[in-house]
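> @MW can you paste both from yesterday?
MW: sure, first one:
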Amino acid sequence: MNIYMWSGPRNLSTALMRSFENREDTEVWDEPLYAYYLKETKKKHPLAKNIINTYETNIDKLISEITKYVGKKILYQKHMTHHMLSKTPKDWIKKGINCFLVRDPKEVIQSYIKKNKLNNSDDIGFPMQIKLFNLVKKLGSKPIIINAEDLSSNPQKVLISLCKNLHIPFSKKMLNWPKGKRKSDGIWEKIWYQNVQSSTKFEKLKKNQGEIPRKYKDIYFECLDIYNKLNKLNILNE
């Protein structure tokens, strides 16, 4: 069983990967398309050359691995939506169960700009997230949507509902995990994963009190429209 969890950055996506990895029946794969994305876009991310040299960048080989049947095990894949480029083949997503992790773009933007340059909405994944959502519906499947704020404030309720929608048993092991690094972490963990590596559970997200800088307002409103469309179908609203 393949689970594709589609998220943007700053969305609790790594903590959710930890949660699934702590299940006895689950393996995880951390951002399988990252090296491909960096090679194709030539983005100057930290460790970009090392990531490209370490991981597979051939999209056909990647799709073969991403869609491979893993028997009785669950293969949970943490995907960043912006790693899917407009030219990237997308029909393969029908080979798994597609879930979408969303977060209020105000919180995403304010968190993102602390460490990154924000050029446009594609950098934080919202446009591709709605495109993938629409594709899943077109392919005849029901997208599963969860909210990062809900996950941080009531993880057990969200995870029980998520597992029900995935048709897998909920495990209390998903609520806690041991501190530290994982072999499954991408080599970018040394840049981005300090907080999650010191965590043992989902922590309540702190609201950013400041206003979004004026130069990001257009990006915010574009992403807010997408967020509202997706969050309306949040599994906790069912």
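MW: second:
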Amino acid sequence: MTIYTQAESNIRKTWILITLFLVFIIVLGWLFSYLLDNQIFLILAVIIAFFQSILSCWYSDKIVLLMTGAKLIEKRDNPELYRVVENLCITAGLPLPKIYILNEAQPNAFTTGRDVNHAVIVVTRGLLEKLEKVELEGVISHELSHIGNKDMFLQTIVVILVGIIGIISNWFLRISFWRRREREERDSANAIFIIFGIIAAILAPIAATLIQLAISRKREFLADATGALLTRYPEGLARALEKIAMNPNPLRVANDATSHLYIVNPLRGREKISWFHKLFMTHPPIEERVRILREMRV
């Protein structure tokens, strides 16, 4: 498989998942509106979820940087890192993002920001100390690919969709319990249908999260492929991923809320790869990512 076919495959799979997500919301919204005999509640849920998600995503970079304590650097602070980022930005046709360094021994990196003009790349001290230049270029190219592929914009859309499902499910459950007496007066067939709706409201947020995680994994594969296309050297990123994954140092500032941002899961000791665990992973297994990279033909 070439780099180009790998990238095309992941783009296609991402949009299939997005389409399924939209169909899922439409079906769920129709079901809840039908059972409650009220279209207004669905419209209000969509409006609230939209603005709530937009607000959180707009300030996501500032929130994450505050949580991690990463420090902004200038070119004079680390000329070599700046040159790597600048050269790859020129190749990718991207504006230069702000560069931050996180004072942590674990080698890792992540990208955040609301769009290409407000993007931020964060690398740890351990990444700069432990990777060779070609490996560092592989990591930076992966992070720039997230920017170039508009993954931050896509993530905003997905967060909005998940928020809509969560809110309409929550509202349906609350309104259903308020109308319990009214339901008891209906015939048994309607009662069974409403029970089905309640089950759907409970399971829908879980299903939405699984779709969100599946999209996240596909975008990681795409960033790997696009990053390899930037450097024309997939082996550099493959070696970097192996080194990052094998490093035993914990990342003290990482938590479940931010772990999905990093190029490799920073929470050590949680790398189980059973089929059930894979469903809840934000990143594909390292072994699979490395294998695909090494099978790519430039």
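> thanks! The mean pLDDT is 79.
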